[in-house]
Amino acid sequence: xxxxxxxxxxxxxxxxxxxxxxxxxxxxxxxxxxxxxxxxxxxxxxxxxxxxxxxxxxxxxxxxxxxxxxxxxxxxxxxxxxxxxxxxxxxxxxxxxxxxxxxxxxxxxxxxxxxxxxxxxxxxxxxxxxxxxxxxxxxxxxxxxxxxxxxxxxxxxxxxxxxxxxxxxxxxxxxxxxxxxxxxxxxxxxxxxxxxxxxxxxxxxxxxx
Length: 209
Fold this sequence. Notes:
Layout lengths: L8 H16 L3 H13 L1 H23 L3 H6 L1 H28 L12 H13 L3 H9 L11 H32 L1 H24 L2
Helix pairs in contact: 1-8, 2-3, 2-5, 2-6, 2-8, 2-9, 3-6, 3-7, 3-8, 5-6, 5-9, 8-9
């Protein structure tokens, strides 16, 4: 147990397992990490994963601070973020489809073009789902008394979020890279599949309440 923390080791382990299970579920963030890894390499996949982790940390911070309702009230702000995220997913998806058809020798530039862009993409896609704040506000009380959160608890939850969410996304990065190195033909088909998935995810994101 961390110094100045009320969470038990069992509670920390339970929270970590819950976050890992949820981070592993197919989602737009998973598709983005895979897409960045396939087209930009491991570093781009890791950068996208970093952006996703930062977004989750922001949501966890809002949930711990008891301002989940405030985040929901800022609907107009998050609508802009949602539209931006949908357009980003659509852009990356279309580029993946085009490059998969063009062939490796005529491939388009890596998607995205810079590590910073990859990280921002991960952050924006994560922030587009503002309801995640409400989810964390509902999840955390199962493992820690939110009325008496201590500094050690905050540090523990932050560390668990980084390790659980970041660790799962890292596995997706490594799997994508193994696919590229070992089975380039299937990896090319994977690019097309990821492109279709991202295009579909952009539509779903826009339609979500």
